[in-house]
Structure formats: C-alpha cells, structure tokens
Amino acid sequence: MAQATPLEANFRNSEDRAEKKRLRREGFVPGVLYGKTTESKAVSVPNVAFIKTMREAGRNGIVELNFDNGAKHKVIVNDVQTDSLKDTYEHIDFFEVDLTQDMDADVTVNLVGEAPGEKEGGVVSHLQFTLSVRALPEEIPEQIEVDISELNIGDSIFVSDLKSDKTFEFNADPEEAVVTVVPADVPVEEELDTDAAAEPELVGDDSAEETTEDNE
C-alpha cells in the first residue's frame, strides 16, 4: 500500500483577492480543502514544496497535509488552476479522502510500444487519453499502460481488452475503443466541371438587379 506524501500547509483566514496575490508573491499557492464530510477550509501550501510533492506522489497519489496546529488531512489533488502566461500555480483544490471507501478517478492512458500498422503506413489514433477507474484511494494507478506493439492497420484495443488488476476496475463502457490504427488519409481531388468552373458568377444579371430594385 502506497505511503502518503507529506506536505506542509497553512490555514487561511481570508478568500480576499489581495490576500491571494500576497501569498503568491511570497511563494505560496492558495487553495481549498474539502471533502464529503469535511467542511470547506481556505488553505495555502509552499509553491516549491508542492511541485516536489507532485513529482513524488504523482497526479493521483495521496498527499498528507500537515498543519502547524497538528491537524493532518489525507487528500488527493482534485484540481489545479495555472497561469499559462506566467507558468505558475494559481489555486489548488484538495479533496479529503476516506481511505476505506472506493472512489472514482480519471487516470492517464499511456501508449507503449510501436504498432506494426504504423510502419505499414497506418496512423495510430489515440482515442481515450484518460479512463475512469474505481478503487480505494491508495490503490488508484498513476497511469494505465496500453501495449500497441501488435496492432496492424484496422486493429483496435477496447476497454474490455485492458487488464485491470484486483486493486481497481474500469468504469468505462467495455466496448469503448481506446486506440486504433487507421489507414493514412488519402487526399481526394474533386473533379471540377470545366463548364461550370468557367461560368462566372451572375453579378450583373438583370434579374438580380430587378430583385434588388424590388426590395428597395
């Protein structure tokens, strides 16, 4: 069973925009802690420590928020808002989990191997980039690897083909395609009717002028 990754955190007294800006300037990321049985609380975490924690725990890993008053909360990072221009974290949603209860989570699908169909001129079409799974919080996989090394042109891998171990199960439709190899697109040149192509637009048509005059 995976260990929770510790992360120091602080409670905030205000949701004021100026307060959030101050925290970001001082190297913290404002956030909120909540859960099914946890009242929503404003919090903040050190930016650098949060980055290191995410690298260690992974996207679906369990994080233990440790507060200076001795409180400890086991959470997952439910959502992260970023500023793409500044490349900074703006806000984090921490969802407190019950380690004894199954929960749903979206897990990244990672394709591994090289499809023979691609060497034959086909194109690998990655259809599902995430899949929903149900598991205990500490058993949620970091990613789902899908081996495409036996896919020829026209072959597909469906959810039903994926092997989930005993720790989690898929929520998706078993017949949903995850990846397929399709023939490369062949550009189709439309054949133009030379007579029609040579015929100019009837801009100066008398009937068009009459219609215009009637509408005026």
Automatic annotation (TrEMBL):
Highest taxon in the source lineage: Bacteria
GO MF annotation terms: 5S rRNA binding; structural constituent of ribosome
Protein name: Large ribosomal subunit protein bL25
GO cellular component terms, semicolon-separated: cytosolic large ribosomal subunit
UniProt keyword tRNA-binding present: no
Family: Belongs to the bacterial ribosomal protein bL25 family. CTC subfamily.
Ranges for domain Large ribosomal subunit protein bL25 L25: 7-94
Record function comment: This is one of the proteins that binds to the 5S RNA in the ribosome where it forms part of the central protuberance.
Disordered: annotated segments: 1-20, 187-216
Source species: Salsuginibacillus halophilus
Keywords, in A-Z order: Ribonucleoprotein, Ribosomal protein, RNA-binding, rRNA-binding
Entry keyword rRNA-binding: yes
Upper classification of the organism: Bacteria, Bacillati, Bacillota, Bacilli, Bacillales
Record CDD domains: Ribosomal_L25_TL5_CTC
One GO term of the biological process aspect: translation
Span of domain Large ribosomal subunit protein bL25 beta: 104-183
The protein's assembly and partners: Part of the 50S ribosomal subunit; part of the 5S rRNA/L5/L18/L25 subcomplex. Contacts the 5S rRNA. Binds to the 5S rRNA independently of L5 and L18.
